[in-house]
Write the structure tokens for this entry.
Amino acid sequence: MPTIVHEFAWPDRVVVGTIGVPGERTFYLQVRSGKQIVSIALEKQQSALLAEKIDEILDQLISLEGNPFSVPTSTPVELVDNDQLEAVEEQFRTGAMSLGWDPSILQVVIEAYPLTDVDADENDESSNEDDTDAPEVLRVRMPVGTARAFAKRTREVVGAGRPICSRCGYPIDADGHICTLPEV
């Protein structure tokens, strides 16, 4: 079967957001262009790494000798997006992702691929018998200002989870935390 490509060349909105309470949140990468909305689930670590790598790409572009690109060093105020996710209908759970820079259109490019069958077998909750066998990919192209705003929001969303124990470094649950490290 041909690959189903969910492509967004100049999205109206591209954000990472969550559903659920800290410790039980599901992270989503949501993209909208007009009335087309695609939401894919991803892990917290994938979200954090995506934001980090986008900032690295943008910072590298700034530091190029004779920089031909106009890359903002911080998030342009007009691109800040603190709104909740729109209606979420999960398209797929993300397995692999790729990130790149397309100098021909001056945009950051994110590609996300679903978990493979092997990965889905390990996590039965992620498999869905109603899914078709057609492979899918989400491809998002975003200009540098949007990419900077996306990375900032994603870092904030990731950081809004459970507080970290200063003794052991593990998250503290709402109902308490038993730290197994000895007193210092």
Confidence is low (pLDDT under 50) at residues 126-131. The first helix runs from residue 44 to 62. The CA atoms of residues 111 and 139 lie 5 Å apart. Helices lie at 44-62, 117-122, 144-159.
